[in-house]
Design brief:
By secondary structure, the chain is of the alpha+beta class. The chain has two domains: 57-183 and 191-328, Biosynthetic peptidoglycan transglycosylase-like (Penicillin binding protein transpeptidase fold); 344-533 and 540-705, DD-peptidase/beta-lactamase superfamily (Beta-lactamase, 3-Layer(aba) Sandwich), CATH 3.40.710. 41% of the residues lie in helices and 11% in strands. It is built from 21 helices and 17 strands. It has helices at 2-50, 93-103, 115-128, 138-147, 154-170, 173-183, 193-201, 210-217, 232-248, 254-262, 277-293, 305-328, 339-353, 399-402, 412-422, 453-458, 462-472, 474-483, 509-520, 555-570, 628-640; strands at 64-67, 73-77, 332-335, 367-375, 380-385, 430-433, 440-441, 449-452, 524-525, 531-535, 541-544, 550-551, 585-590, 596-602, 606-614, 689-691, 713-716. The longest helix has 49 residues, at 2-50. The radius of gyration is 29 Å and the shape is globular. 47% of the residues are buried. Mean pLDDT is 84; it is low at 128-133 and 656-717.
Length: 717
């Protein structure tokens, strides 16, 4: 009996195992069938793409056009590769060898794809659950750059492989290398080796030496990172790496190597339109919009240095690819830029800073400024000024979005007070503004004793801000800046100095404007951009900005901070910022030794932020948030509000601070986030950053917060 039962159990077990096996194999066959069908579809798509490809396909380009808010053309983005196309025999042999050596060593042996490299990349991508390595051959890079978008998907990658194999069937290796070298991107609008040679060295590629050729050959791997105009030292280091690879491979002699290494690379100055801060910003916004549309995920927080480095490398390469597509893709880029407001803001900034004509060795004015205006209804940037107007040769630096500076007290509303109110506090709550041993000093050692939070912000006293930060903790407060994608905020910011604007790198005017616009928008953050929509060469809408966002602050906390800043304009230290034709809320900021001055504020209609300082931070006589920045801000805001109805800010509820716990979540990919609730000598001062805390900016020094327990900090306005 026992044996019979055992036999029955074994038979049952075998049936179960057999059923599982059959099910597994059936599922496997189904999955394999679906996968095979997908592969065949992608192969068919690749053949269709290649059906009309000819030699002329690799010389074609189409200009992209930028339009302002009224549909008027601002400028055209056109590359110059058509002017400099070289046949294979016109390209130096050593240059061909360079590209093969550094980009695709097996170029002459494979049929378009490198299976061993693909397997290695696939293993790495599976490990990280994302496409981090592409294993792209020269032929694949050509396929992607010429016939596909820049999306980071498996479908695109597989299609790229099929196109590469078709290219190898149709064209010779020499032709493919010729197409590649004539179409690869060398940064700054230069496509193809001859355009790069003329652009950087002012002469044809046939006249370049080995060192100069290696310098150019190294750029395409990461055009942003190795941009000769912005990252010259990195470009030279990349050249050295290329030369080492050539020498190791026996492609140049030891004499050639050492002569090339020692050769001093001298490049031309980049000649650009000095007035066109609009175009640079549109270019930046449109590039990122296309990246995001194709699935690129932007990040500002990282697990470690390796994670950050990997992201930056991917970002640089992806950005360069999409940047190239803007020159050649025939896009129509529609923006919110109002050229009347743009010219007005530029002219006012120029006029207010014209008293300082000193220049550096590069001919650029020492005293600079930047300003941003956001239309509060749409959340879009309507005017952006990246510096003073002047004619000179060199890289065009748009300080409005590329410069990161210490914000001083201008950061208090978004970093200190709004989070504190979300935690359950109220504007009329009393706080002690008294001297703190080992803490900050108020300007001129002036302390007001027991005052309300509204008065503390309106008088820009530093002690209350410091005490509030102690209560919040820097770790909690800083999450609100992360939520609004402030790019240069890192783990080193977890110190008390941030309460008065002492950061390692700082913030950009665009970032600060977006933060203030969030307060005006009842706590809903909208990514700052000037692009409203983009169409492709067929007229199809491929990017459409609906103006949606996600909640960072509670509505009532945002309204409370707004009313507090309004009080500061009407009764506090910013009474000179009061407008006759608009109700405004504003806050100034001044860093230590008067190196940076800020004025940030808004009405119901517009948010405007102004920064004034020097590119290389230094003390400026008479500079403060309440002087030159205020003058620029006030004149501009008064003019753009002419004829507009007077709109008041709403009032808040008396129990507003009790309606949310203040918890912050990290779900920024969704549209909404309910969990996010969490001229002359200055005669006013807004009490900002301390002597003893280096906040001079632009990332060259870390914030020094040592000795807090035994050192007095002198905060200046």
């Amino acid at each position: 009996m026992a044996k019979d039962k055992t036999k029955k159990k074994n038979k049952t077990l075998k049936k179960i195992i057999l059923a599982i096996v059959i099910t597994f194999l059936g599922t496997l066959l189904i999955v394999a069938g679906v996968f095979l069908g997908k592969i065949l579809k992608l192969r068919s798509d690749a053949k269709k793409i290649m059906s009309n490809v000819s030699l002329d396909s690799f010389r074609q380009t189409e200009t992209s056009i930028i339009y302002d808010i009224n549909g008027k053309e601002i400028s055209a983005l056109s590359g110059i590769k058509e002017l400099y196309y070289l046949e294979s025999d016109e390209i130096p042999d050593v240059l061909k060898k360079m590209f093969v050596q550094i980009e695709d060593k097996d170029f002459y042996n494979h049929s378009g794809i490198d299976m061993s490299a693909i397997i290695r990349a696939a293993l790495a991508n599976v490990t990280h659950a994302s496409i981090r390595q592409g294993a792209s051959t020269i032929t694949q890079q050509l396929a992607k750059n010429m016939f596909l978008d820049q999306s980071i998907t498996w479908n695109r990658k597989i299609t790229e492989m099929f196109i590469a194999m078709e290219l190898e069937k149709r064209f010779s290796k020499d032709q493919i290398l010729e197409f590649y070298i004539n179409n690869i991107y060398f940064a700054n609008g230069y496509y193809g080796i001859e355009a790069a040679s003329e652009g950087y060295f002012g002469k044809p590629v046939s006249e370049l030496n080995v060192s100069q050729l290696a310098f150019l050959a190294g750029i395409p791997r990461r055009p942003n990172a190795y941009d000769p105009f912005t990252n010259y030292d990195a470009a030279v280091e990349r050249r050295n790496s290329v030369l080492k690879q050539l020498y190791a491979a026996g492609l140049i002699t030891s004499l050639e190597y050492y002569e090339a290494i020692e050769y001093d690379i001298v490049i031309n100055s980049k000649k650009t339109d000095r007035y066109n801060y609009v175009e640079t910003y549109v270019f930046y916004c449109a590039t990122r919009a296309l990246m995001e549309q194709d699935g690129f995920v932007f990040r500002t927080e990282f697990t470690d240095k390796d994670d950050e480095d990997a992201y930056k490398e991917m970002y640089d390469s992806t950005y360069a690819e999409y940047q190239k597509s803007l020159f050649t893709g025939g896009y129509r880029i529609y923006t919110a830029i109002d050229m009347e407001k743009q010219e007005l803001l530029q002219n006012i900034l120029n006029q207010e800073l014209k008293f300082s004509e000193d220049t550096g060795d590069n001919g650029i004015y020492d005293l600079q400024g930047a300003a941003v205006c956001i239309d509060n209804e749409t959340g879009l940037v309507t005017a952006i000024v990246g510096g003073r107007t002047q004619e000179y040769d060199g890289y065009m630096f748009n300080r409005a979005y590329q410069a990161y500076r210490q914000p001083g007290s201008a950061i208090k509303p978004v970093l200190v007070y709004a989070p504190y109110l979300i935690a359950g506090h109220m504007p009329d709550e009393i706080i002690d503004d008294s001297y703190m041993p080992g803490g900050p000093k108020n300007v001129d050692d002036t302390y007001r004793g027991l005052i309300t939070l509204t008065e503390a912000l309106g008088y820009s006293t530093n002690v209350p801000a410091w005490k509030i930060m102690e209560s919040l903790t820097p770790e909690t407060a800083i999450q609100y800046l992360h939520a609004m994608n402030y790019a240069k905020i890192n783990d080193d910011e977890h110190n008390m100095a941030i309460s008065v604007g002492g950061f390692t790198y700082g913030v950009s005017p665009v970032e600060l404007a977006a933060g203030y616009a969030t307060l005006e928008n009842n706590g809903t953050y909208r990514n700052p951009t000037c692009v409203s929509r983009i169409t492709n060469s067929k007229g199809e809408n491929i990017v459409n900005n609906p103006g949606e966002g996600y909640s960072v602050y509670t509505k009532d906390a945002s309204i409370m901070v707004t009313k507090m800043m309004e009080w500061g304009v009407n009764h506090g230290i910013l009474q000179k910022a009061k407008l006759e034709n608009a109700i405004v809320a504003a806050k100034s900021g001044t860093t230590n030794d008067y190196k940076d001055g800020w004025l940030a504020g808004y009405s119901k209609y517009y948010t405007t932020v102004v920064w004034v300082g020097c590119d290389q931070p230094k003390s400026v006589l008479g500079l403060g948030g309440g002087t030159f920045p205020l003058n620029i801000w006030k004149k501009y805001m008064e003019i753009i509000h002419e004829g507009l109805p007077l709109e008041e800010f709403p009032d808040y509820q008396d129990n507003a601070g009790d309606n949310n716990s203040g918890d912050i979540h990290d779900e920024k990919e969704t549209e909404t986030h309910p969990g996010w609730h969490g001229g002359g000598t200055p005669n006013i001062s807004d009490g900002d950053t301390p002597h003893g805390v280096d906040v001079s900016g632009r990332g060259d020094k870390d914030v020094d917060v040592s000795g807090m327990g035994d050192k007095d900090y002198d905060y200046r306005g």
